[in-house]
Protein backbone atom coordinates (compact mmCIF):
# COMPACT_ATOMS: atom_id res chain seq x y z
CA UNK A 1 0.00 0.00 0.00
CA UNK A 2 2.79 2.42 0.81
CA UNK A 3 4.94 1.46 -2.15
CA UNK A 4 5.06 5.00 -3.46
CA UNK A 5 8.62 6.21 -3.10
CA UNK A 6 9.31 9.65 -1.69
CA UNK A 7 5.88 10.84 -2.75
CA UNK A 8 5.04 14.32 -1.52
CA UNK A 9 2.34 14.15 1.12
CA UNK A 10 -1.02 14.42 -0.61
CA UNK A 11 -2.57 17.87 -0.45
CA UNK A 12 -5.07 18.67 2.28
CA UNK A 13 -8.64 18.73 0.99
CA UNK A 14 -9.81 22.27 0.21
CA UNK A 15 -11.90 24.31 2.61
CA UNK A 16 -14.76 24.49 0.12
CA UNK A 17 -14.78 20.81 -0.63
CA UNK A 18 -14.98 20.07 3.09
CA UNK A 19 -17.65 22.77 3.46
CA UNK A 20 -19.66 20.81 0.91
CA UNK A 21 -19.05 17.52 2.77
CA UNK A 22 -20.11 19.15 6.03
CA UNK A 23 -23.27 20.57 4.41
CA UNK A 24 -24.31 17.11 3.20
CA UNK A 25 -23.56 15.55 6.56
CA UNK A 26 -25.30 18.27 8.59
CA UNK A 27 -28.38 18.41 6.37
CA UNK A 28 -28.83 14.64 6.61
CA UNK A 29 -28.50 14.67 10.38
CA UNK A 30 -30.83 17.65 10.83
CA UNK A 31 -33.75 15.58 9.62
CA UNK A 32 -32.97 12.83 12.15
CA UNK A 33 -33.40 15.10 15.16
CA UNK A 34 -37.07 14.77 15.97
CA UNK A 35 -37.11 17.97 18.08
CA UNK A 36 -35.57 19.98 15.29
CA UNK A 37 -37.90 18.64 12.65
CA UNK A 38 -41.00 19.48 14.71
CA UNK A 39 -40.06 22.74 16.42
CA UNK A 40 -37.91 24.24 13.68
CA UNK A 41 -38.87 22.72 10.37
CA UNK A 42 -42.59 21.94 10.67
CA UNK A 43 -43.52 24.60 13.24
CA UNK A 44 -44.33 27.51 10.87
CA UNK A 45 -46.34 25.21 8.62
CA UNK A 46 -48.36 23.89 11.56
CA UNK A 47 -48.87 27.41 12.91
CA UNK A 48 -50.01 28.71 9.54
CA UNK A 49 -52.54 25.90 9.29
CA UNK A 50 -53.86 26.57 12.80
CA UNK A 51 -54.04 30.35 12.45
CA UNK A 52 -55.54 30.29 9.00
CA UNK A 53 -58.15 27.79 10.14
CA UNK A 54 -59.04 29.43 13.47
CA UNK A 55 -59.10 33.05 12.32
CA UNK A 56 -60.40 32.28 8.87
CA UNK A 57 -63.66 30.69 10.08
CA UNK A 58 -66.74 31.95 8.27
CA UNK A 59 -64.48 33.57 5.69
CA UNK A 60 -63.34 36.25 8.13
CA UNK A 61 -60.72 38.53 6.61
CA UNK A 62 -58.84 41.77 7.07
CA UNK A 63 -60.49 44.61 5.18
CA UNK A 64 -58.62 47.64 3.90
CA UNK A 65 -61.04 49.87 2.03
CA UNK A 66 -62.38 47.70 -0.78
CA UNK A 67 -59.64 45.12 -0.49
CA UNK A 68 -60.06 42.04 1.66
CA UNK A 69 -57.09 39.93 2.71
CA UNK A 70 -57.94 36.43 3.99
CA UNK A 71 -56.19 35.52 7.25
CA UNK A 72 -54.19 32.75 5.62
CA UNK A 73 -52.70 35.27 3.25
CA UNK A 74 -52.11 37.80 6.02
CA UNK A 75 -50.27 35.32 8.25
CA UNK A 76 -48.18 33.68 5.52
CA UNK A 77 -45.45 36.39 5.38
CA UNK A 78 -44.98 36.27 9.17
CA UNK A 79 -44.70 32.47 9.06
CA UNK A 80 -42.15 32.61 6.24
CA UNK A 81 -40.10 35.07 8.31
CA UNK A 82 -40.49 32.88 11.41
CA UNK A 83 -39.39 29.83 9.45
CA UNK A 84 -36.24 31.64 8.33
CA UNK A 85 -35.52 32.70 11.89
CA UNK A 86 -36.11 29.24 13.35
CA UNK A 87 -34.03 27.47 10.71
CA UNK A 88 -31.14 29.85 11.07
CA UNK A 89 -31.09 31.43 14.51
CA UNK A 90 -32.83 28.93 16.78
CA UNK A 91 -31.42 25.92 14.96
CA UNK A 92 -27.78 27.03 15.14
CA UNK A 93 -27.92 28.60 18.60
CA UNK A 94 -29.22 25.33 20.07
CA UNK A 95 -27.38 22.80 17.93
CA UNK A 96 -23.96 24.42 18.36
CA UNK A 97 -24.50 24.80 22.11
CA UNK A 98 -25.33 21.09 22.29
CA UNK A 99 -22.38 20.08 20.11
CA UNK A 100 -20.06 22.12 22.30
CA UNK A 101 -21.46 20.59 25.46
CA UNK A 102 -21.27 17.02 24.19
CA UNK A 103 -17.68 17.37 23.01
CA UNK A 104 -18.44 17.23 19.29
CA UNK A 105 -16.78 20.56 18.61
CA UNK A 106 -13.70 19.54 20.53
CA UNK A 107 -13.50 16.34 18.50
CA UNK A 108 -13.63 18.34 15.27
CA UNK A 109 -11.00 20.74 16.56
CA UNK A 110 -8.56 17.83 16.82
CA UNK A 111 -8.99 16.99 13.13
CA UNK A 112 -7.62 18.90 10.14
CA UNK A 113 -11.13 20.16 9.34
CA UNK A 114 -10.75 23.95 8.84
CA UNK A 115 -13.08 26.00 11.08
CA UNK A 116 -14.28 27.82 7.95
CA UNK A 117 -15.51 24.51 6.53
CA UNK A 118 -17.45 23.83 9.71
CA UNK A 119 -19.24 27.18 9.37
CA UNK A 120 -19.77 26.74 5.64
CA UNK A 121 -21.42 23.44 6.52
CA UNK A 122 -23.68 25.09 9.09
CA UNK A 123 -24.72 27.86 6.71
CA UNK A 124 -25.19 25.32 3.93
CA UNK A 125 -27.40 23.17 6.14
CA UNK A 126 -29.44 26.22 7.16
CA UNK A 127 -29.87 27.23 3.52
CA UNK A 128 -30.94 23.76 2.43
CA UNK A 129 -33.43 23.27 5.26
CA UNK A 130 -34.92 26.77 5.16
CA UNK A 131 -35.31 26.60 1.36
CA UNK A 132 -37.21 23.33 1.63
CA UNK A 133 -39.19 24.70 4.57
CA UNK A 134 -40.17 27.92 2.75
CA UNK A 135 -41.08 26.00 -0.39
CA UNK A 136 -43.32 23.66 1.65
CA UNK A 137 -44.88 26.58 3.47
CA UNK A 138 -45.70 28.32 0.19
CA UNK A 139 -47.03 25.10 -1.27
CA UNK A 140 -49.33 24.50 1.71
CA UNK A 141 -50.49 28.14 1.63
CA UNK A 142 -51.20 28.04 -2.10
CA UNK A 143 -52.75 24.57 -2.29
CA UNK A 144 -54.60 24.22 0.99
CA UNK A 145 -55.53 27.84 1.71
CA UNK A 146 -55.65 29.35 -1.80
CA UNK A 147 -53.18 32.09 -0.95
CA UNK A 148 -52.21 33.81 -4.23
CA UNK A 149 -48.48 33.66 -5.00
CA UNK A 150 -46.75 36.81 -6.20
CA UNK A 151 -46.98 37.17 -9.96
CA UNK A 152 -44.32 39.81 -10.66
CA UNK A 153 -40.55 39.39 -10.79
CA UNK A 154 -40.07 42.33 -8.43
CA UNK A 155 -41.83 40.48 -5.59
CA UNK A 156 -39.82 37.31 -6.11
CA UNK A 157 -36.65 39.38 -6.09
CA UNK A 158 -37.70 40.95 -2.79
CA UNK A 159 -38.49 37.48 -1.41
CA UNK A 160 -35.03 36.32 -2.47
CA UNK A 161 -33.02 39.09 -0.86
CA UNK A 162 -35.05 39.21 2.36
CA UNK A 163 -34.77 35.41 2.59
CA UNK A 164 -31.02 35.36 1.97
CA UNK A 165 -30.17 38.34 4.15
CA UNK A 166 -32.49 37.12 6.91
CA UNK A 167 -30.94 33.63 6.77
CA UNK A 168 -27.40 35.01 6.91
CA UNK A 169 -28.23 37.33 9.81
CA UNK A 170 -30.07 34.61 11.71
CA UNK A 171 -27.23 32.12 11.18
CA UNK A 172 -24.54 34.53 12.33
CA UNK A 173 -26.56 35.58 15.39
CA UNK A 174 -27.27 31.91 16.11
CA UNK A 175 -23.54 31.15 16.20
CA UNK A 176 -23.06 34.14 18.51
CA UNK A 177 -25.88 33.11 20.85
CA UNK A 178 -24.70 29.52 21.03
CA UNK A 179 -22.16 30.59 23.67
CA UNK A 180 -24.89 31.94 25.96
CA UNK A 181 -26.46 28.72 27.35
CA UNK A 182 -24.34 27.21 30.10
CA UNK A 183 -24.98 23.70 28.90
CA UNK A 184 -26.51 21.83 26.00
CA UNK A 185 -29.38 20.82 28.21
CA UNK A 186 -30.34 24.42 28.92
CA UNK A 187 -29.91 25.57 25.32
CA UNK A 188 -33.56 25.13 24.32
CA UNK A 189 -34.76 26.74 27.53
CA UNK A 190 -32.57 29.80 26.92
CA UNK A 191 -33.11 30.24 23.17
CA UNK A 192 -36.77 29.29 22.66
CA UNK A 193 -38.29 32.06 24.86
CA UNK A 194 -36.24 34.70 23.04
CA UNK A 195 -37.64 33.47 19.74
CA UNK A 196 -41.20 33.21 21.10
CA UNK A 197 -41.22 36.75 22.48
CA UNK A 198 -39.88 38.08 19.20
CA UNK A 199 -42.60 36.22 17.33
CA UNK A 200 -45.32 37.79 19.50
CA UNK A 201 -44.03 41.37 19.32
CA UNK A 202 -42.96 41.27 15.67
CA UNK A 203 -46.37 40.74 14.12
CA UNK A 204 -46.08 37.04 13.39
CA UNK A 205 -49.16 36.00 15.35
CA UNK A 206 -50.97 39.35 15.45
CA UNK A 207 -51.57 42.13 13.02
CA UNK A 208 -48.46 44.26 13.57
CA UNK A 209 -50.24 47.62 13.19
CA UNK A 210 -52.64 46.72 16.00
CA UNK A 211 -49.89 46.16 18.58
CA UNK A 212 -49.25 48.97 21.09
CA UNK A 213 -46.80 51.43 19.62
CA UNK A 214 -44.21 50.89 22.40
CA UNK A 215 -44.22 47.21 21.49
CA UNK A 216 -43.83 48.06 17.82
CA UNK A 217 -40.86 50.23 18.73
CA UNK A 218 -39.15 47.47 20.73
CA UNK A 219 -39.77 45.01 17.92
CA UNK A 220 -38.20 47.43 15.44
CA UNK A 221 -34.84 46.93 17.12
CA UNK A 222 -34.81 43.25 16.20
CA UNK A 223 -34.55 41.57 12.79
CA UNK A 224 -37.73 39.48 12.88
CA UNK A 225 -40.09 42.48 12.61
CA UNK A 226 -38.22 43.63 9.51
CA UNK A 227 -38.14 40.21 7.92
CA UNK A 228 -41.89 39.89 8.46
CA UNK A 229 -42.45 43.34 6.98
CA UNK A 230 -40.28 42.50 3.98
CA UNK A 231 -42.27 39.31 3.46
CA UNK A 232 -45.57 41.18 3.74
CA UNK A 233 -44.42 43.39 0.86
CA UNK A 234 -44.08 40.19 -1.16
CA UNK A 235 -47.33 38.41 -0.34
CA UNK A 236 -49.83 41.16 0.47
CA UNK A 237 -51.52 43.39 -2.11
CA UNK A 238 -50.16 46.93 -2.45
CA UNK A 239 -53.18 48.33 -0.59
CA UNK A 240 -51.81 46.74 2.60
CA UNK A 241 -48.80 49.04 2.45
CA UNK A 242 -50.98 51.71 4.07
CA UNK A 243 -51.13 49.61 7.28
CA UNK A 244 -47.35 49.70 7.72
CA UNK A 245 -45.51 52.19 9.90
CA UNK A 246 -45.27 55.40 7.88
CA UNK A 247 -47.39 53.81 5.15
CA UNK A 248 -44.34 52.25 3.49
CA UNK A 249 -42.78 48.76 3.15
CA UNK A 250 -39.49 50.40 4.22
CA UNK A 251 -37.17 48.12 2.23
CA UNK A 252 -34.13 50.30 2.84
CA UNK A 253 -34.66 50.20 6.61
CA UNK A 254 -35.18 46.43 6.47
CA UNK A 255 -31.87 45.95 4.68
CA UNK A 256 -30.11 48.34 7.06
CA UNK A 257 -31.35 46.65 10.26
CA UNK A 258 -30.60 43.15 8.95
CA UNK A 259 -27.10 44.16 7.84
CA UNK A 260 -26.45 45.87 11.18
CA UNK A 261 -27.36 42.65 13.05
CA UNK A 262 -25.27 40.64 10.58
CA UNK A 263 -22.20 42.74 11.35
CA UNK A 264 -22.78 42.80 15.11
CA UNK A 265 -23.44 39.04 15.12
CA UNK A 266 -20.28 38.40 13.15
CA UNK A 267 -18.11 40.46 15.50
CA UNK A 268 -19.64 38.95 18.65
CA UNK A 269 -19.59 35.44 17.17
CA UNK A 270 -15.93 35.60 16.23
CA UNK A 271 -14.98 36.89 19.66
CA UNK A 272 -17.05 34.49 21.75
CA UNK A 273 -16.87 31.25 19.78
CA UNK A 274 -15.37 28.40 21.80
CA UNK A 275 -14.58 24.86 20.74
CA UNK A 276 -14.74 23.61 24.28
CA UNK A 277 -17.13 23.90 27.17
CA UNK A 278 -16.66 26.77 29.58
CA UNK A 279 -15.65 24.42 32.37
CA UNK A 280 -13.11 22.61 30.18
CA UNK A 281 -9.94 24.54 30.97
CA UNK B 1 6.35 21.88 30.65
CA UNK B 2 4.25 23.85 33.12
CA UNK B 3 0.59 24.84 33.44
CA UNK B 4 -1.28 26.40 36.35
CA UNK B 5 -4.99 26.89 36.94
CA UNK B 6 -5.23 29.70 39.46
CA UNK B 7 -3.27 28.56 42.49
CA UNK B 8 -3.08 24.96 41.36
CA UNK B 9 0.04 23.98 39.49
CA UNK B 10 -1.48 21.22 37.32
CA UNK B 11 1.66 20.49 35.36
CA UNK B 12 4.84 21.38 37.19
CA UNK B 13 7.95 20.86 35.14
CA UNK B 14 6.96 17.63 33.47
CA UNK B 15 9.47 16.04 31.10
CA UNK B 16 8.40 13.45 28.59
CA UNK B 17 10.04 11.96 25.52
CA UNK B 18 8.20 9.51 23.31
CA UNK B 19 10.12 7.69 20.62
CA UNK B 20 8.70 6.92 17.19
CA UNK B 21 6.83 3.62 17.20
CA UNK B 22 6.63 3.39 20.98
CA UNK B 23 3.53 2.81 23.04
CA UNK B 24 3.87 4.91 26.16
CA UNK B 25 1.36 4.84 29.00
CA UNK B 26 0.97 7.80 31.33
CA UNK B 27 -0.28 6.66 34.73
CA UNK B 28 -1.30 8.70 37.69
CA UNK B 29 -4.09 9.39 40.14
CA UNK B 30 -6.98 11.71 39.26
CA UNK B 31 -5.78 15.29 39.25
CA UNK B 32 -2.16 14.33 38.63
CA UNK B 33 -2.05 16.37 35.42
CA UNK B 34 -2.38 13.55 32.87
CA UNK B 35 -5.18 15.03 30.83
CA UNK B 36 -3.77 18.54 31.02
CA UNK B 37 -0.47 17.22 29.73
CA UNK B 38 -2.05 15.29 26.90
CA UNK B 39 -4.29 18.19 25.90
CA UNK B 40 -1.29 20.51 25.72
CA UNK B 41 0.40 17.97 23.44
CA UNK B 42 -2.78 17.76 21.32
CA UNK B 43 -2.84 21.54 20.94
CA UNK B 44 -6.08 22.07 22.92
CA UNK B 45 -4.54 23.97 25.78
CA UNK B 46 -1.86 26.57 26.06
CA UNK B 47 1.03 26.07 28.44
CA UNK B 48 2.55 28.56 30.82
CA UNK B 49 6.12 27.54 30.21
CA UNK B 50 8.47 24.98 28.75
CA UNK B 51 9.28 23.79 25.28
CA UNK B 52 7.01 21.30 23.53
CA UNK B 53 7.63 19.59 20.20
CA UNK B 54 5.19 17.07 18.78
CA UNK B 55 6.12 15.63 15.39
CA UNK B 56 8.62 18.49 15.17
CA UNK B 57 6.09 21.26 15.73
CA UNK B 58 4.79 23.30 18.63
CA UNK B 59 1.19 22.10 19.07
CA UNK B 60 0.09 25.56 20.21
CA UNK B 61 0.96 26.91 16.74
CA UNK B 62 0.59 23.86 14.54
CA UNK B 63 -1.81 23.95 11.62
CA UNK B 64 -3.94 21.62 9.53
CA UNK B 65 -1.04 19.65 8.09
CA UNK B 66 0.10 18.76 11.59
CA UNK B 67 -3.42 17.86 12.70
CA UNK B 68 -3.68 15.50 9.75
CA UNK B 69 -0.72 13.56 11.17
CA UNK B 70 -2.11 13.06 14.66
CA UNK B 71 -5.14 11.12 15.86
CA UNK B 72 -6.95 12.11 19.03
CA UNK B 73 -9.29 9.95 21.06
CA UNK B 74 -10.68 12.17 23.78
CA UNK B 75 -12.04 11.09 27.12
CA UNK B 76 -15.62 9.92 26.77
CA UNK B 77 -17.86 12.26 24.80
CA UNK B 78 -21.52 11.75 23.97
CA UNK B 79 -21.78 13.61 20.68
CA UNK B 80 -22.65 12.20 17.22
CA UNK B 81 -25.82 10.57 18.49
CA UNK B 82 -27.89 10.28 15.32
CA UNK B 83 -25.22 9.47 12.74
CA UNK B 84 -24.43 5.88 11.84
CA UNK B 85 -21.04 4.26 12.25
CA UNK B 86 -20.59 4.00 8.49
CA UNK B 87 -21.57 7.62 7.83
CA UNK B 88 -19.23 8.92 10.49
CA UNK B 89 -16.15 6.98 9.48
CA UNK B 90 -16.64 7.80 5.81
CA UNK B 91 -17.30 11.44 6.61
CA UNK B 92 -14.26 11.87 8.84
CA UNK B 93 -12.10 10.17 6.21
CA UNK B 94 -12.78 13.11 3.87
CA UNK B 95 -10.96 15.48 6.25
CA UNK B 96 -7.58 13.85 5.70
CA UNK B 97 -5.13 13.62 2.87
CA UNK B 98 -4.24 9.96 2.35
CA UNK B 99 -6.88 8.66 4.74
CA UNK B 100 -7.31 4.93 5.27
CA UNK B 101 -10.11 3.18 3.53
CA UNK B 102 -13.12 3.79 5.78
CA UNK B 103 -14.44 0.24 5.41
CA UNK B 104 -11.06 -1.18 6.35
CA UNK B 105 -11.08 0.93 9.50
CA UNK B 106 -14.57 -0.26 10.38
CA UNK B 107 -13.36 -3.85 10.04
CA UNK B 108 -10.24 -3.07 12.04
CA UNK B 109 -12.22 -1.81 15.04
CA UNK B 110 -14.68 -4.67 14.72
CA UNK B 111 -17.80 -2.64 13.98
CA UNK B 112 -18.69 -4.27 10.67
CA UNK B 113 -22.07 -5.48 11.95
CA UNK B 114 -22.82 -2.06 13.40
CA UNK B 115 -22.10 -0.08 10.25
CA UNK B 116 -25.73 1.01 9.90
CA UNK B 117 -26.29 1.52 13.61
CA UNK B 118 -26.59 5.01 14.99
CA UNK B 119 -23.91 6.04 17.49
CA UNK B 120 -26.59 6.54 20.18
CA UNK B 121 -27.44 2.84 20.08
CA UNK B 122 -23.90 1.53 20.53
CA UNK B 123 -22.73 -0.02 23.80
CA UNK B 124 -19.97 1.73 25.75
CA UNK B 125 -17.27 -0.48 24.27
CA UNK B 126 -18.56 -0.17 20.72
CA UNK B 127 -18.84 3.58 21.16
CA UNK B 128 -15.19 3.74 22.22
CA UNK B 129 -14.20 1.67 19.19
CA UNK B 130 -16.01 4.20 17.04
CA UNK B 131 -14.03 6.98 18.73
CA UNK B 132 -10.84 5.12 17.89
CA UNK B 133 -12.00 4.55 14.31
CA UNK B 134 -12.51 8.29 13.90
CA UNK B 135 -9.14 8.94 15.53
CA UNK B 136 -7.18 6.64 13.23
CA UNK B 137 -9.01 6.97 9.90
CA UNK B 138 -6.56 9.71 8.88
CA UNK B 139 -3.63 7.27 9.14
CA UNK B 140 -2.00 9.21 12.00
CA UNK B 141 1.67 8.87 12.88
CA UNK B 142 0.88 9.61 16.49
CA UNK B 143 -2.28 8.55 18.34
CA UNK B 144 -3.42 9.98 21.67
CA UNK B 145 -5.72 7.73 23.68
CA UNK B 146 -7.10 9.39 26.81
CA UNK B 147 -8.44 6.76 29.22
CA UNK B 148 -9.73 4.67 26.35
CA UNK B 149 -11.18 1.73 28.29
CA UNK B 150 -12.78 3.36 31.32
CA UNK B 151 -15.99 1.50 32.06
CA UNK B 152 -15.25 -1.51 29.83
CA UNK B 153 -15.96 -5.05 30.84
CA UNK B 154 -12.86 -7.28 30.87
CA UNK B 155 -13.64 -8.88 27.52
CA UNK B 156 -14.17 -5.54 25.78
CA UNK B 157 -10.91 -4.32 27.29
CA UNK B 158 -9.04 -7.34 25.93
CA UNK B 159 -10.27 -6.81 22.41
CA UNK B 160 -9.52 -3.10 22.68
CA UNK B 161 -5.93 -3.96 23.59
CA UNK B 162 -5.64 -6.08 20.47
CA UNK B 163 -6.76 -3.07 18.48
CA UNK B 164 -4.06 -0.87 19.99
CA UNK B 165 -1.47 -3.54 19.32
CA UNK B 166 -2.59 -3.54 15.69
CA UNK B 167 -2.00 0.19 15.52
CA UNK B 168 1.57 -0.27 16.57
CA UNK B 169 2.08 -2.93 13.96
CA UNK B 170 0.93 -0.31 11.45
CA UNK B 171 3.79 1.88 12.61
CA UNK B 172 1.88 4.36 14.75
CA UNK B 173 3.22 5.85 17.95
CA UNK B 174 0.71 5.70 20.79
CA UNK B 175 0.51 7.88 23.87
CA UNK B 176 -2.04 6.50 26.27
CA UNK B 177 -3.34 7.64 29.64
CA UNK B 178 -5.01 5.11 31.87
CA UNK B 179 -6.09 4.26 35.38
CA UNK B 180 -5.59 0.58 34.80
CA UNK B 181 -2.23 -0.86 35.73
CA UNK B 182 -3.02 -4.04 33.90
CA UNK B 183 -3.65 -2.06 30.74
CA UNK B 184 -0.32 -0.27 30.99
CA UNK B 185 1.46 -3.54 31.72
CA UNK B 186 -0.15 -5.26 28.76
CA UNK B 187 0.24 -2.53 26.16
CA UNK B 188 3.03 -0.17 26.99
CA UNK B 189 6.69 -0.36 26.07
CA UNK B 190 7.22 2.25 28.69
CA UNK B 191 5.23 3.58 31.61
CA UNK B 192 5.45 7.14 32.91
CA UNK B 193 4.05 7.75 36.38
CA UNK B 194 2.84 11.29 37.01
CA UNK B 195 2.05 12.79 40.40
CA UNK B 196 1.37 16.45 41.21
CA UNK B 197 2.26 17.47 37.67
CA UNK B 198 5.68 15.82 37.67
CA UNK B 199 7.11 12.56 36.41
CA UNK B 200 7.95 10.49 39.48
CA UNK B 201 9.14 7.41 37.62
CA UNK B 202 9.39 5.99 34.15
CA UNK B 203 10.55 2.79 32.56
CA UNK B 204 9.35 -0.45 31.01
CA UNK B 205 6.54 -1.96 33.09
CA UNK B 206 8.73 -4.84 34.19
CA UNK B 207 11.45 -2.66 35.70
CA UNK B 208 9.49 0.39 36.78
CA UNK B 209 10.59 1.85 40.06
CA UNK B 210 14.09 0.38 39.94
CA UNK B 211 15.67 -2.53 41.75
CA UNK B 212 14.83 -1.65 45.33
CA UNK B 213 11.14 -1.41 44.60
CA UNK B 214 11.37 -4.73 42.83
CA UNK B 215 12.92 -6.64 45.70
CA UNK B 216 11.26 -9.87 46.61
CA UNK B 217 9.74 -10.27 50.03
CA UNK B 218 10.15 -13.56 51.89
CA UNK B 219 7.59 -14.16 54.64
CA UNK B 220 7.30 -16.88 57.19
CA UNK B 221 6.27 -17.29 60.80
CA UNK B 222 7.50 -19.17 63.83
CA UNK B 223 6.85 -19.14 67.57
CA UNK B 224 8.01 -15.47 67.73
CA UNK B 225 5.41 -14.39 65.16
CA UNK B 226 5.50 -13.10 61.58
CA UNK B 227 8.80 -12.44 59.80
CA UNK B 228 9.43 -10.56 56.61
CA UNK B 229 12.69 -10.06 54.76
CA UNK B 230 13.31 -7.94 51.65
CA UNK B 231 15.95 -9.42 49.41
CA UNK B 232 17.48 -9.59 45.95
CA UNK B 233 18.23 -13.25 46.44
CA UNK B 234 15.09 -14.97 47.70
CA UNK B 235 16.33 -18.45 46.80
CA UNK B 236 19.33 -18.03 49.07
CA UNK B 237 17.13 -16.75 51.88
CA UNK B 238 14.74 -19.65 51.49
CA UNK B 239 17.71 -22.03 51.46
CA UNK B 240 18.93 -20.64 54.77
CA UNK B 241 15.46 -20.83 56.25
CA UNK B 242 15.16 -24.43 55.08
CA UNK B 243 18.41 -25.28 56.83
CA UNK B 244 17.07 -23.64 59.99
CA UNK B 245 13.49 -24.93 60.13
CA UNK B 246 13.35 -27.90 57.77
CA UNK B 247 9.87 -27.27 56.44
CA UNK B 248 9.53 -23.44 56.76
CA UNK B 249 6.21 -22.57 58.47
CA UNK B 250 3.96 -20.24 56.42
CA UNK B 251 6.58 -19.64 53.71
CA UNK B 252 5.71 -17.06 51.06
CA UNK B 253 7.91 -15.46 48.42
CA UNK B 254 6.29 -12.33 47.03
CA UNK B 255 7.26 -10.31 43.99
CA UNK B 256 5.80 -6.83 43.92
CA UNK B 257 3.23 -6.33 41.15
CA UNK B 258 3.19 -3.23 39.00
CA UNK B 259 0.33 -2.12 41.16
CA UNK B 260 2.43 -2.36 44.35
CA UNK B 261 5.20 -0.37 42.70
CA UNK B 262 2.74 2.19 41.36
CA UNK B 263 1.02 2.67 44.69
CA UNK B 264 4.32 3.26 46.43
CA UNK B 265 5.32 5.73 43.69
CA UNK B 266 2.22 7.84 44.04
CA UNK B 267 2.49 7.74 47.82
CA UNK B 268 -0.77 5.94 48.37
CA UNK B 269 1.04 3.59 50.70
CA UNK B 270 3.45 4.05 53.56
CA UNK B 271 6.35 2.17 51.95
CA UNK B 272 9.23 4.43 50.94
CA UNK B 273 8.90 5.62 47.35
CA UNK B 274 11.92 5.00 45.24
CA UNK B 275 11.69 7.14 42.14
CA UNK B 276 14.33 6.24 39.68
CA UNK B 277 14.63 6.50 35.97
CA UNK B 278 15.64 3.50 34.03
CA UNK B 279 16.61 2.76 30.47
CA UNK B 280 18.04 4.92 27.79
CA UNK B 281 15.89 5.92 24.86
CA UNK B 282 17.85 6.26 21.72
CA UNK B 283 14.79 6.24 19.46
CA UNK B 284 14.14 9.28 17.38
CA UNK B 285 11.99 11.49 19.55
CA UNK B 286 8.57 12.37 18.21
CA UNK B 287 7.38 14.28 21.22
CA UNK B 288 9.79 16.04 23.50
CA UNK B 289 8.27 18.39 26.02
CA UNK B 290 10.96 19.46 28.43
CA UNK B 291 10.55 21.29 31.67
CA UNK B 292 12.01 24.77 31.63
CA UNK B 293 12.71 27.44 34.21
CA UNK B 294 11.91 25.42 37.28
TrEMBL record, chain A:
Subcellular localization, as worded in the UniProt entry: Cell membrane; Membrane
Name of protein: Transport permease protein
Keywords, sorted A to Z: Antibiotic resistance, Cell membrane, Membrane, Transmembrane, Transmembrane helix, Transport
Gene Ontology MF annotations: ABC-type transporter activity
Residue stretches making up the ABC transmembrane type-2 domain: 35-276
Transmembrane intervals: 36-55, 75-98, 119-144, 156-177, 189-208, 252-273
Topology with respect to the bilayer: Multi-pass membrane protein
Biological process according to GO: response to antibiotic
GO cellular component, one term: ATP-binding cassette (ABC) transporter complex
A UniProt-annotated Pfam family: ABC2_membrane
Family (UniProt): Belongs to the ABC-2 integral membrane protein family.
From TrEMBL, chain B:
Domain ABC transporter: 1-221
Membrane topology: Peripheral membrane protein
Disordered: annotated span: 269-294
A cellular-component GO term for this protein: plasma membrane
GO biological process, one term: response to antibiotic
Alphabetical UniProt keywords: Antibiotic resistance, ATP-binding, Cell membrane, Membrane, Nucleotide-binding, Translocase, Transport
Coiled-coil regions, chain positions: none
GO molecular function, one term: ATP hydrolysis activity
Compositionally skewed regions (Basic and acidic residues) per UniProt: 269-284
Subcellular location: Cell membrane
InterPro entries: AAA+_ATPase (IPR003593), ABC_transporter-like_ATP-bd (IPR003439), ABC_transporter-like_CS (IPR017871), ABC_transporter_ATP-binding (IPR050763), P-loop_NTPase (IPR027417)
Pfam families associated with the record: ABC_tran
Segments of skewed composition (Polar residues): 285-294
Residue stretches spanning the membrane: none
CDD domains documented for this protein: ABC_DR_subfamily_A
PANTHER family, alphabetized: ABC TRANSPORTER ATP-BINDING PROTEIN (PTHR42711), ABC TRANSPORTER ATP-BINDING PROTEIN NATA (PTHR42711:SF5)
Family designation: Belongs to the ABC transporter superfamily.
Name of the molecule in the record: ABC transporter
